[in-house]
């Protein structure tokens, strides 16, 4: 392999067990460009084989440290240090890395053009690298990093006059099973934030997210409160599911909100914000829900299995001309509002539980008859 001096494209390179000298052969390929996946880096046991790689024209680099043993953590670090990519690198993935810390070159001054970074299965690292000064970083994904307990100020590398994470738009944290605390600073351009399966996280989440458009929080069992003190003028989608300790999570001024989903948050007390553009509202298995006014733009509405639901007395819950799906459970409601379904030609799915009266309202009977006459291909269901 090392004799192919003029080779320009090499999509995959695998370091086989007991043949670590393969890595030295890769170092001799001076003209590679584009994308390369390097697998089997965990098989490198002799640090003398961790020669600096000449990847000056590589724009996308995937490194996988599969193979080897846990006690080879130090060699993993030396190998990753030696791989040091060029300053033109745009995308970097590090997978199953067994080193105790990340390489020194993983910071802004060495990778000014890095746009996307994924860290996956780097379980022995106790802290994330200082990424805040990566000037071009737009997407950050962190998965299965079991050693991370705290994300603190070092993560932001906030020792200069440059705003940390000034280009970051998308961020994912998933399966961080020991992550407990996030010391948060401002993310000026962040559009999407996803936090999934972080069972020990319980501290406040970021406040200064002026550009946020989509928020997803799932399976964070100890998260108690998201103190929504900041402004979210562009936030369009919120999905919060399976956070049993979360009590409060909603700011009341969300002018751009289109989709709100809160499910299996048994201690949640929420007042539905007034949003003129909301299309989907799905609140299920929560504690106390207060609705002052439903937006008439709704196409999908579900209020089910909540302990207590209170509606404004002036609110006609079914006054939605565009409604397509409706699911209501009044068993925990203070008072059932009037129902008038006769004019909803778009409604194809209907589920009602816990109706207080012994009989269904006349309007509902008329709706059922009208649906049968139209022979709508979709079904309307009364539970």
UniProtKB/TrEMBL annotation:
Stored Gene3D superfamilies: Ribonuclease Inhibitor
Looking up InterPro entries in the UniProt record yields: LRR_dom_sf, LRR_R13L1-DRL21
Signal sequence coordinates: none
R13L1/DRL21-like LRR repeat region domain mapped to chain residues: 23-145
User: Mind telling me which SUPFAM superfamilies this protein's record contains?
Assistant: L domain-like (SSF52058)
The record's section on Pfam families has: LRR_R13L1-DRL21
Q: What is this protein called?
A: Putative leucine-rich repeat domain, L domain-containing protein
- The species this protein belongs to is Medicago truncatula
């Amino acid at each position: 392999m090392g004799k192919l001096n003029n080779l320009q494209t090499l999509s995959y390179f695998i370091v086989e067990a007991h043949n670590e000298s393969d890595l030295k052969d890769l170092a001799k390929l001076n003209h590679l460009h584009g994308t390369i996946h390097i697998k089997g880096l965990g098989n490198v046991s002799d640090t003398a084989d961790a020669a600096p790689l000449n990847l000056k024209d590589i724009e996308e680099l995937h490194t996988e440290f599969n193979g080897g043993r846990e006690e080879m953590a130090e060699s993993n670090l030396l190998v990753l240090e030696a791989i040091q990519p060029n300053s033109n690198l745009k995308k970097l993935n590090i997978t199953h890395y067994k080193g105790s810390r990340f390489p020194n070159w993983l910071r802004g001054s060495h990778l000014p053009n890095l746009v996307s970074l994924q860290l996956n299965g780097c379980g022995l690292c106790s802290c994330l690298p200082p990424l805040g000064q990566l000037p071009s970083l737009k997407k950050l994904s962190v998965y299965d990093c079991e050693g991370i307990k705290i994300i603190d100020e070092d993560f932001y590398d906030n020792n200069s006059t440059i705003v940390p994470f000034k280009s970051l738009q998308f961020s994912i944290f998933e399966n961080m099973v020991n992550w407990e605390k996030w010391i948060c600073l401002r993310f000026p351009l962040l559009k999407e934030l996803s936090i999934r399966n972080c069972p020990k996280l319980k501290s406040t989440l970021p406040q200064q997210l002026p550009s946020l458009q989509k928020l997803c929080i799932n399976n964070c069992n100890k998260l108690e409160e998201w103190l929504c003190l900041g402004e979210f003028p562009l936030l369009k989608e919120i999905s919060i599911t399976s956070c049993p300790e979360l009590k409060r999570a909603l700011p009341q001024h969300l002018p751009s909100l289109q989709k709100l989903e809160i499910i299996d948050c048994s201690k949640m007390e929420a007042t539905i914000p007034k949003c003129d553009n909301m299309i989907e509202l799905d609140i299920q298995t929560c504690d106390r829900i207060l609705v002052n006014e439903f937006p008439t733009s709704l196409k999908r509405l579900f209020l089910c299995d909540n302990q207590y639901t209170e509606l404004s007395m002036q609110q006609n819950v079914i006054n939605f001309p565009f409604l397509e799906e409706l699911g209501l459970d009044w068993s925990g409601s203070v008072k059932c509002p009037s129902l008038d379904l006769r004019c909803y030609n778009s409604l194809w799915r209907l589920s009602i539980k816990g109706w207080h009266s012994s009989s269904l309202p006349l309007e509902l009977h008329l709706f059922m008859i009208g649906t049968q006459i139209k022979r709508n291909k979709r079904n309307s269901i009364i539970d």
